[in-house]
From TrEMBL:
Free-text comment on the cofactor: Binds 1 Mg(2+) ion per subunit.
Matching PANTHER family: D-GALACTONATE DEHYDRATASE-RELATED, ENOLASE SUPERFAMILY MEMBER DDB_G0284701
Catalytic site: 149, 245
Official protein name in the record: Dipeptide epimerase
NCBIfam families: racemase_DgcA
UniProt GO molecular function: metal ion binding; racemase and epimerase activity, acting on amino acids and derivatives
Cofactor(s) the record lists: Mg(2+)
Keyword list, A-Z: Isomerase, Magnesium, Membrane, Metal-binding, Transmembrane, Transmembrane helix
Transmembrane parts of this sequence: 265-288
Length: 326
């Protein structure tokens, strides 16, 4: 029996504006893939990311290249060999996981983790003035983990303002490649003084050799510098942790390989996300069960999520129900 593939572009409004060092956005643009076989269907979602040269059009085109192979029942291993890491492979890989779960009657978590539990996710604060970021932090000061977007001038003032406004929250800083060799040591020292837990990708990918020579006063996490397991060897000695995102790795299958290799190398694990819906977060919640840091707040940043969605209670996110995924 052949499989059918449905590909849809979808847009979900963001609550307000989401700003990082590279720009702002007011909606999440996602691609949803549905793979059907007989009476069963599986879904997966991806978020094309321009930082990696992806657009909605290019990702859909990449998906269409393998339509015939999917119709002839290509499995996840074949998909891993046929497509490069990236958003297109992620949507298809996650759809195949969901389809396999529906057809077998076995939940997807059996291939990823033990019985999944609710986990604590970070909540992201957009880049802004120190005063604006302090206001965001104060409004979310009850959350146990905040992820703070920085990456420009006056970052030390921003960090101080956020810490003062949310003194009981653990804080991750995400510079999105916005620091330089000239300011990284001063910024790291300030972050250490203020008790920051982790710093994501302070320098541009490929321009981070200084990390081998300077003191890591706060653990440093690779994001844009790592996509899949093959990237890890060249990062040894540069980073203390890796941020695993399904859209970068190219699906849950590749993300598991990346997680396992990172653990072998003694790296801490963060499981993160692009700004997407609960469908994109669902497989990542399973991957994140034993992660050191979790950043799966995409639906919390939206004005409207898909239904049914993940259940969030404050910063606690529960595993997905089969009606959503897996």
């Amino acid at each position: 029996m052949q499989r059918d593939l449905l590909v849809e572009s979808q847009r979900f409004p963001i609550a307000g504006t989401f700003t990082i060092s590279r720009g702002s956005k007011t909606e999440a643009e996602v691609i949803c893939c549905m793979i059907s076989e007989g009476h069963f269907s599986g879904r997966g979602e991806c978020v094309p990311y321009r930082r990696y040269g992806e657009t909605m059009e290019s990702v859909i085109a990449a998906i269409e290249v393998v339509r015939g192979d999917l119709a002839n029942r290509m499995d996840r291993g074949g998909l891993l060999r046929a497509m490069p890491a990236g958003a297109a492979r992620n949507a298809l890989d996650c759809a195949l996981w969901d389809l396999e779960a529906k057809m077998s009657g076995k939940p997807a978590h059996t291939g990823v983790c033990a019985a999944p539990r609710a986990i604590t996710t970070a909540y992201t604060l957009s880049l802004g003035t120190p005063e604006a970021m302090a206001a965001q932090a104060a409004a979310n000061a009850a959350r146990p983990l905040l992820k703070v977007k920085i990456g420009g001038e006056n970052d030390i003032e921003r960090i101080r303002a956020v810490v003062a406004a949310a003194p009981n929250s653990k804080i991750i800083l995400d510079a999105n490649e916005g620091w330089t060799d000239d300011n990284i040591e001063a910024n790291l020292a300030a972050a250490a003084e203020l008790g920051i837990a982790l710093i994501e990708q302070p320098l541009p990918a490929g321009q981070d050799e200084i990390l081998r020579r300077i003191d890591h006063a706060v653990p440093i996490c690779a994001d844009e510098s790592v996509h899949e397991a093959a990237d890890l060897e060249k990062l040894r000695g540069l980073y203390d942790a890796v941020n695993i995102k399904l859209d970068k790795a190219g699906g849950l299958t590749a993300a598991i390989l990346l997680r396992n290799k990172a653990r072998e190398l003694g790296l801490s694990i963060m499981v993160g996300c692009m700004v997407g819906t609960s469908l994109a977060m669902a497989p990542a919640v399973l991957l994140a069960q034993d992660a050191d840091f979790v950043d799966l707040d995409g639906p919390l940043l939206l004005a409207r999520d898909r239904s049914p969605g993940l259940v969030y209670q404050g910063s606690i996110v529960s595993p997905p129900e089969p009606a959503l995924w897996g």
